[in-house]
Amino acid sequence: MGLVTATFVTACNSQPTADSSDSSAPTTVSSANAKELKLLYWQAPTTLNPHLSPGTKDREAASLILEPLAAYNEAEELEPILAAEIPTLENGGISADNTTVTWKLKEGVKWSDGEPFTAEDVVFTYQFITNGEVGATSGEFYGEVQSVEAVDDLTVKITFNRATPTPMNPFVGGSGMILPEHLFKDFLGAQARSAPGNTAPVGTNAFQVKEFKPGDTIIYEPNPNFRGEPPAFSTVELKGGGDAVSAARAVLQTGEADYAWNIQAEPAVIKGLEANARGEMAYVPKPMMERIYINFSDPNKEVNGETSQKDTPHPFLSEKLVREAISLAIDRETIAEQLYGEAGSVATNFLVSPEKYASPNTRYEFDLTKAAQRLDEAGWKDTNGNGVRDKNGVEMEILFTSSVNPVRQKSQEIIKQNLESIGMSVELKSVEAGVYFGDSTNPDSVNRFNSDLQLFAFDSETPEPDSYMELYACDQISQKENQWSKENSSRYCNPEYDALLEQLNTETDLAKRTALFVAMNDLLIEDVALIPLVRRSDAYALASSLTNLEFTPWAASTWKLNEWGKT
Amino acid sequence: MGSYLLKRILIAIPTLIAISMVIYLVLALAPGDPLGELANSPSITPEIRENIRRVLGLDQPIHIRYVKWATAFITGNMGYSFVNPVQVSQLILQRLPTTLWVVGSAYLVSVLIAFPLGILSALKRHSWLDNLITTFAFAGFSIPPFFTGLIFIIFFSVWLGWLPSIYDSTLVITDLGGFVTQAKQSILPIAVLALFQTAVLMRYIRAAVIEQLNMDYVRTAYAKGLSGWQVMTRHILRNALVPVVTLIALDVPAVFTGALVTEQVFRVPGIGSLLIDSIVRSDTPVVMAITFIYAILIVLFNLLADILYGVLDPRIRYS
């Protein structure tokens, strides 16, 4: 099941890491009671079972309770959480032929209700995730898994279908949180969504749920059976709803909350709020990148009942010179600086993260004259004097879509100006996110891609982005025959790229994998299969009184909340 | 009276059925997919998506879905939310007390302010007092609640630091301190809502009273030596009240649906914010339940208003 690893994010944002620890202003209103921690989420969590929701907000809320076997930290290294150690080739945890992984679990770990945590829980979690009736949303990393078995109470053995370059994907990070078997075993099937454990889960992490009001508030209290140091807070309150700016204000200006998640706001607004010295913003660069998708097929020609059919080349975007011209004409720096501020930086790569795989060979160039020259060279000239370039009777008219989101609409405006200055005509369109990212058979959905250019963000959830690379594979082309369920909406197909992808699927040597990732990235960028715009960071508003914070791009921001403190 | 009531109730039933069909159809035909968020996730294969659709009952044709929903609703079962793993009734019950408290007290406050001010400005019409009250009313009426909400937050929460801008729904009132906290966090949303509603009500009461003031019976009442207070309470108000009662009766169901904007601004977890969230996430069962309960309340309170006419005005008799 070669599915592309990625998550659309409709309204999240991101950028460079913060000195997440505390700074100045020791006394704030809220720190009077140092035992209570208040978190603000402008999207309210609706379920506490991370495997039944694709939303980041729900994983954020669940990760105070549930834990994976391990997670990647900011340095892209695996840290054991429920595992006693990280399996490697050296310690024999990963078999020499890369077909099995054996995890040793920590001893003496208990669920918050006192039941012991064992390898059976891991096996059960695998069954839960892969059971079709359950409809779990985190199945993408388990497709290559042949079996998961409990060798003994503290040993789990994962066997893969074939030698895999990414043996550490299952049970790691946000999609790998382990569920308690004793709570969910009667709900392994279509009734999974009505399991009581979804609203009051029992977990192994430092907190348990005291009260859960779906779509509103969650109150956590310490888990009495937690294996480690008890957390510094006797109560954690997670309040949902509202909007991002007022959430930031509550932390940075009025001090009513200690932490606000995922703040996307204009740099000027943030600056004004930070001036109060009650707190500051922290930026964690994510693997998420805003990019322009280029339609390689013709959205205006209908073939066999579908437009944007893969065998009908686009009248001008299929020409490389034209794509280069567009790439040269877009002022990415203005977009990154004016609209994202510290929460974004100019992107030049398809694969922006992890660092070890990011290509050093690409660079950003903004040159309108050069862009115009490319178009002249390709024979696109304004022959009828209407201000728009044309060739063989085809006008360079572009329909440019994105989802409804103030920052995206402003980006669209800037890009429209850029492209019109080199003689194209651009019409903008914005589609409500529920429709845009929703049912793929809807004519306005991203997968149908019935326009010429589209703008949104996409990311890779793990630092082993093999499935992310499938985004431009020929067999991932989104068409009527697959109900537009595949992700290659650009209908880009390059045999050279596919050949590299095939090598990547079996390559386990780090140096060779790095070379392949860089080669594939450079190929897409050189061919202008897409135009990277801005690499985003998650922005968190933090009260100055918080201490000992640690974030990672590869797990929920709450992954180490049990270690947070407050002065 | 009895047969009138029966007739009205019998008319209400087909009305409600028609309303429910229209809402159901609109929701079913609206773009956006309850599986939107799920469809996004690359790990959801078409088979899994079909499974989820079947679990949610979305694979059946719309008329079957409607009949199933309607029969379940009659027995009080509003189904499961698509998004939250709980029953719709549970969700609504969780949100209802907050909404009734905030929006209900706001309405009460505005009625209490609007009556004296409205009567006063009618009696002293075109005086400086009337002009002042009218200016206040137009300001309250024309400034949108999200704006007054922001101004209040900046003034009372940010600058003065007196009142919180975030509503805490988990507060349990066990002592006086708890009550004070509850009162403090309710002041801002109630003030914002009351400002708007007072303005509407006051203008309405003023117009209703002025209409009566020039009537012959008022002159007669004064002529036979009644005091101003007696004329107002016994004669003018009783007549002026009839249209005002209609307005208030029709506003009461709106208390149930909460305040869409104000709840968002102050993070009040009421029915209004639940409705908005559910619409955004295409959570059809929740949207359907809230809008339909609203429809039932409207029909009910319409009936109630008609009955109240008879109590207020002895000339109105139903038979």
From TrEMBL, chain B:
Locations listed in the record: Cell membrane
GO biological process: transmembrane transport
A Pfam family annotated for this UniProt entry: BPD_transp_1_N
Membrane-spanning parts: 9-30, 100-123, 135-162, 186-205, 240-266, 286-312
GO cellular component, one term: plasma membrane
UniProt entry tagged with the keyword Lipid metabolism: no
Domain ABC transmembrane type-1: 96-305
Keyword Phosphoprotein belongs to the record: no
Family note: Belongs to the binding-protein-dependent transport system permease family.
PANTHER family the record matches: DIPEPTIDE TRANSPORT SYSTEM PERMEASE PROTEIN DPPB-RELATED (PTHR43163:SF6)
Protein name as it appears in the record: Peptide/nickel transport system permease protein
